[in-house]
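The instructor's notes for this session suggest beginning with a concrete chain rather than abstract definitions. Hand out the sequence below and ask the class to guess, before any prediction is shown, which regions might be ordered.
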Amino acid sequence: MIYEIRKSTTKVPVDFLCKYFGVSSSGYYFWKKRSENIHSNKRATVCDAIKKYFKISKSTYGSPRIYDDLKEAGILVSENTVAKYMKEMGLDARLKKKYRVQTTDSNHNHPIAPRLFKVEDAHPLPSKAGKLLAGDITYLRVGYRFIYLAVVIDLYNREVIGWSMGNSLETSLVLRALDSAMKKVGPDAEIIFHSDRGSQYASKAYRNFLKNKNIKPSMSRRGNCYDNAYVESWFSSLKKEWIYRNCYSTEAELKALVFEYIEVWYNKKRKHSSLGNQSPEKYKLTNLSH
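After discussion, reveal the predicted structure:
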């Protein structure tokens, strides 16, 4: 009854409605104020929790991941409400890309491996860890120069299982990343490793490394970044979520940031929508136990 009064107050005077439904005006206003206070307190609780989880994510989570955090914490609210409150509080995880540097040199005479991994396949991703790996190189700026980062990602759970940093784009950069990845995967694993056609991934040293480790090489089509989209996406996340949001002035500070993102945040804690909002490590552990 009292809800009917509230629904109709925009069209009919409150005093008339109270008399019609046999409710005192003072009783209605008491209920209305109490209801508003409850709503205000719940809103404040939700907003405080949103700010807490947004801060924990280093300002990188949008409303879907924040909603999932709230649900895990037992705070029941719709995702649309989370998005609305975040907008009102100015909590925006989006960050525009700043610049791009060319790291791939495909103009060489080294042999090109066939494209064994095809993104457009109906079921392109593996059902077990350590079967399909992908890697690439990106740049990270320090003042007026660049530090280069090579990574190896297990496409089963998007975990970064190998990475290395250096001052040049020499083949040793990718070999160090691959070597650290192989220590996690194990010497007897049957692996396909996908990369672009860069000279580092076509060099004799690289081909010898893969041959000695019994790894099958796979390469993207010329000039087609979508063939290695998973690694490209990871580089974008690293820069937008971490590098561009933090201040650093030395190579050591930059390397510490990369270490923190990969080993402390991304692999262990960062929720991944394609993994059911689990971190890469949690996804692997959960599926190993089944």
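Then share the key points. The mean pLDDT is 79. Residues 2-89 form one domain.
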